[in-house]
Structure to design on (331 residues):
């Protein structure tokens, strides 16, 4: 692991939980009303909810966001009013925003506080190390079915006083907390700017696969000095060449990493493409792509068996390119 990498124990398996059901009421029964806009929902309409302690229901994801926006603003104000000038800048926080998924999945600390509205708010905290500096990621969220359902606020900080400020309520046993989560179903999560895993709901969404888990773990090892994610679009043209003419191909449990080093630019860099085997014979699906200037990170992608380049056939790839791993936005 390179000195710029972020170290965190435990596996990453992002899950989520937004409740959804059809009202299915008889004419003489009380109909659901949206907790935000008061609109009465018809019997065939879906009903959304993000907690069960109070029992608030909503007609749309937008109404959920609007309803909780005052509390989001209050928590953001609390953060800004106590923010140390020596803490991370907004740009640095954006570069570390991927840590929130790791924190939501495997927190080091869990604090639970009952609000005056009657629901339970959870603060998840994880500690990391980056370039010899200790930092924390904090996520404040509601829970439903044992999983985060509405993310109020998430940020990274290297200020221990900020961490202490957000330790509110009762400290829960992380081991028991994780054990309880594994017994629950997973659906999807709402953040203050939208919905993660926004797919038609007809039951339960599947948890992340082992391949997706490894991909998320590797992404978490990016350092602050690496190429910003905001600039990734400038490098997408290198994907095809990396697949056709890789310098290295590594394979582990059906997950392939194609690596190519480029020296013809002002700043040398590597381009990495991740692909997984499909059930169909000799078919691979691209699941990740990224540039990096960090040799330590490239070494992390050299896992498993190094394939002979003559074994690689570009025609084995599916045309569909998945989007980058989902992650909520920083506030």
């Amino acid at each position: 692991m390179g000195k710029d990498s972020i170290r965190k124990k435990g596996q990453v398996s992002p899950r989520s939980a937004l409740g959804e059901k059809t009202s299915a009421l008889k004419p003489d029964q009380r109909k659901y009303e949206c907790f935000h806009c008061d609109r009465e929902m018809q019997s065939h309409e879906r009903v959304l909810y993000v907690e069960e302690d109070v029992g608030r229901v909503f007609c749309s994801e937008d109404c959920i966001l609007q309803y909780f926006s005052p509390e989001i603003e209050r928590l953001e104000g609390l953060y800004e009013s106590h923010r140390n000038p020596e803490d991370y800048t907004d740009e640095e926080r954006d570069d570390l925003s991927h840590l929130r998924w790791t924190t939501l999945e495997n927190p080091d600390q869990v604090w639970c506080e009952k609000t005056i509205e009657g629901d339970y708010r959870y603060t998840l905290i994880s500690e990391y190390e980056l370039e010899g500096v200790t930092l924390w990621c904090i996520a404040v969220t509601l829970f439903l079915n044992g999983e985060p359902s509405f993310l109020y606020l998430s940020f990274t900080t290297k200020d221990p006083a900020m961490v202490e400020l957000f330790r509110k309520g009762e400290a829960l046993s992380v081991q028991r907390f994780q054990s309880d989560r594994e017994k629950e179903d997973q659906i999807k999560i709402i953040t203050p700017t939208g919905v993660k895993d926004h797919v038609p709901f007809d039951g339960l969404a599947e948890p992340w696969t082992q391949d997706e888990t490894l991909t998320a773990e590797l992404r978490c090892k990016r350092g602050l000095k690496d190429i910003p994610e905001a600039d990734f679009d400038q490098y997408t043209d290198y994907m095809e060449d990396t697949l056709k003419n890789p310098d290295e191909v590594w394979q582990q449990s059906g997950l392939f990493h194609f690596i190519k080093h480029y020296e013809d630019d002002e700043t040398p860099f590597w381009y990495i493409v991740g692909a997984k085997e499909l059930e169909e014979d000799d078919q691979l699906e691209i699941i990740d792509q990224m540039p990096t200037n960090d040799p330590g990170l490239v070494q992390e992608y050299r896992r498993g068996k190094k394939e002979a380049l003559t074994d690689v056939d570009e025609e084995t790839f599916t045309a569909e390119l998945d989007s980058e791993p989902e992650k909520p936005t920083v506030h």
